[in-house]
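Fold these two proteins, one after the other.
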Amino acid sequence: MDKKLAWHESLELHELTAFNSIGLMKLKTTLPHIKNSELKGLYQLAIKEIEASLHELLAFYPLTPREEDEERKQMDETLFQGDLLVLSKTAVRNYSIAITETATPALKNVLVNQLNKMIQLHDRVFQFMYKQGNYPAYDLNKLFKHDMLLAKKALSM
């Protein structure tokens, strides 16, 4: 294995770690409210798989091109911010795919308008998170450190 990850690999690692961390927190928060035993079992399986994925991803963080920073941040609000960011980002992707599969002009126009709204929402959420210091997009050292803290919080829940 190489001694360092490339920048583009590191950014993909960041995206997957953040996505899995937020998803894991959401699953763990929701699990106690699920009554159906089969669905509860599926949630437990998903939690186990995502935890394993996070452990595997975290093993690559020492290879990211960054400096160590020992500052710790409070992560409680980050769950809500990250959940909204992931929701809006996923909506942008889903609308984009749906538009390419739509032949009816009236429906396509509606989907394009909704896509634009989701792009605007994503930007507003990102700008909010950036302003709050919870998405340091221009400081990869802080971004990777933030990912690690978020994943460790998700794993410790």
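Now the second one:
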Amino acid sequence: MEHIETLYDLILVWDNAALVAKSLESIIRIRSVQNFSASDSVSFVYLYKKMLRDAFYQDFQKENRLNELLLFETRIDNLALIAFDVYAKTREEIYQLRVEEIKRAQHNLLLRANMIVDCSTP
């Protein structure tokens, strides 16, 4: 919950996209490790946008402040793009870790079967 609150505060100010991405990364990383699809991982961003519109549209319209709501929605759209980039980067890291793990396992099996000689030890 702490990450969501931090993210919310950063969205309100939106003066540092790198901080927004870092805050978002902790949320998206969990979802990508749990094998959520890309759309499932970032869908909360769009739900957040809908929730804000439903909550504030009428009030902002009455006060002739719809431009502020649109600006905030643009931030949410940008957040979704950042979330997708973070998801893709995290999934790539996971796949790289899996490839390295498979390489190590294969190498160890070949060593045990005496099919290769380990030259790394003197």
